Amino acid sequence: MNMLEVKNLSKVLGERQVLENMSLSVQQGEILFVLGRSGVGKSVLLKTIVGLIHQDKGEVWIDGEKTHPERELAMVAVRRQCGLVFQSPALFDSMTVKENLIFGDEDKARHISATMAWLKLPEKILNFYPSELSFGFQKKVSLLRTLLSNPKYLLFDEPTTGLDPVTTNLVNDVIRDCAKARNMGCLVVSHDLQSAYHLADRIVLIDQGKIALSGTPSNFKESDYPLAVAFRKGTINFAEGY
Ligand SMILES: Nc1ncnc2c1ncn2[C@@H]1O[C@H](COP(=O)(O)OP(=O)(O)OP(=O)(O)O)[C@@H](O)[C@H]1O
Ligand SMILES: [Mg+2]
Question: Which of 58, 127, 213, 220 has the fewest CB atoms within 10 Å, i.e. is most exposed?
């Protein structure tokens, strides 16, 4: 069974129950958007899937096999199968773009040119340092770094936040290609409703640690759940709820 499954994940951070019995799944070739206001736990969910945060309860399964977050070596293999594109570009400032991309794995160098062309990144930037690049280029380099590992599943944390419309469209095209041409499973955390309508096979809305809604983009458009209405109207205050 080729899918990434999150089963009953719970996590308390500080005083807060950030994730409460959360379950969802993404199949290969599918695009799932996870929407929710700021601070609801979207990044925590993605980091928990790849073992950067350890859940209190619940399990993550990849292609029918349970992951073991307590076994760091096994999680390295999980992170190869399940690539996380971080919310901030998370590049090492003291390394060139090329060093950031290869990071000791010369095997990755073979695919750099083709993947850079896909992302419309000029090869001359390989010798630049991250601080010499615009934010949009840094985000694309971060995406490129994850793509070079050729993961089966891609976890995107706000891939289009802060990007101009042209780069947003390019990143959305890459997400669609990953799923529909390369058969990867894509879990996309976002505030960007237009991208969700455009790309998602399914949308999940999280609210107060739980899944409040799960369905197609049409289901989301028709829902009278207050947070879904607030998202649609654009009246959501990401800092303070709705
Ligand atoms: N390592 C951590 N230690 C303690 N609390 C944390 C940690 N990481 C996240 N949190 C808390 O967990 C909650 C959820 O954070 P998270 O970053 O997942 O939100 P988010 O939904 O991704 O928000 P945004 O849309 O702003 O990115 C927040 O209250 C945050 O302060
Ligand atoms: Mg986040």
Answer: 127
DSSP state, 21? E
Task: Supply the pLDDT for residue 242.
Answer: 46
Residues of the chain below pLDDT 70 = 237-242
Model confidence pLDDT, tens digit, residues 2-23: 999 999 999 999 999 999 999 9
Residue with tokens 């969700």: 196
Q: What is the pTM of this model?
A: 0.93
Q: Is domain 3-220 annotated with CATH 3.40.50.300?
A: yes
With the C-alpha atoms ordered 37, 42, 9, 15, is the resulting torsion angle positive or negative? Answer: negative
Q: For residue 241, give both structure tokens.
A: 């709820």
Paired tokens of 155:
């976890």
**Residue 113 identity (one-letter amino acid):** S
Residue ranges lining ligand 1, Cβ < 6 Å? 13-14, 16, 18, 36, 38-44, 87
Q: Give the whole-angstrom CA distance, residue 17 versus residue 93.
A: 34
Determine the residue of 19, 34, 44 to mutate for testing ligand 1's pocket, defined as the one with the most ligand atoms within 8 A of the Cβ atom: 44
pLDDT at 104: 73
160-to-89, 104, 174 alpha-carbon distances in Å: 12, 28, 11
Q: Which atom of ligand 1 is nearest to the CA of 53?
A: 1
